[in-house]
Amino acid sequence: MSQILLVDDEVELTDALSRLLKREGYGVDVANDGEAALLAVQRQIGQGLLYDLLILDWMLPKLSGIEVCQELRSQSQLTPVLFLTAKDTLDDRVQGLDAGADDYLVKPFELRELLARVRALLRRSEQFSQTSPESLSQRIQMEGLELDLESQIAYCQGQAITLSEKESQLLTYLMQHPHQLLTHDQIYQHLWPSGDQPSSNVLAAQIRLLRRKIAAKNSPPLIHTIYGKGYWFGSKVETEP
To answer: pLDDT digit string (tens) for 172-195?
Structure first.
């Protein structure tokens, strides 16, 4: 049974969501502030366990959701994080994703959409955990950039770059399809199962964050926007004859 940590200071909301998730067959723990969330994670680790998913509110007492997520990622905790928040601007989305979140749902939201996002994140988490050690040990190298699939760490000019699970999935897909146009639809279908796709702004935010992370000094960018079509990975964009 998948174990979820639900973190929100709105008790009525956590009560309702906890009941809903339990009816869907998930185990649910609840925390009402950021410090309590980190303590719950540490208790799980102390028992040799990890949460399968964190559903995390942005605005929390003591420590914000952003701070909680950043702390977990600094400890190399790769548990998927779904942000619930009323903040809905592109800059807010970028900040949340940059902190290490894997998905983002704006309040108010439909319960069906929340459950779809939960299922999608748990499926990807399960698929990742079931990947064979042989395939996980592989590294992808291209144009001075190296990606370790096991650790979700990229290396550029000798510098290690820690990636979120979503950033790692996106960079892997781009590096596996170099020097070709990848349309928005192709990337969405790869990163998000059909029916679970977020808004178009989320992909743009992910690309923006990833581009910034892997940017190398005195080197051309590797991720190029083909306006109205999609994205291209490589130091040069080839034009059609």
So the answer is: 889 888 888 899 888 888 887 666
**Could you give the angle at the alpha carbon of 169 between the alpha carbons of 165 and 170, nearest 5°?**
120
Cα 157–chain centre separation: 24
Q: Which amino acid is present at 76?
A: S
Q: How far apart are CA 177 and CA 165, in angstroms?
A: 19
Reduce the secondary structure of the chain to three states and give it as a string: CCEEEEECCCHHHHHHHHHHHHHCCCEEEEECCHHHHHHHHHHHHHCCCCCCEEEEECCCCCCCHHHHHHHHHHCCCCCCEEEEECCCCHHHHHHHHHCCCCEEEECCCCHHHHHHHHHHHHHHHHHHHCCCHHHHCCEEEECCEEEECCCCEEEECCEEEECCHHHHHHHHHHHHCCCCEEEHHHHHHHHCCCCCCCCHHHHHHHHHHHHHHCCCCCCCCCEEEECCCEEEECCCCCCCC
* Cβ contact 7:56 at 8 Å: yes
Tell me which residue of 223, 217, 206, 212 sits closest to 102, measured CA to CA.
Answer: 206
Is the model's pTM score more than 0.90?
no
The structure tokens 């998730």 sit at: 21
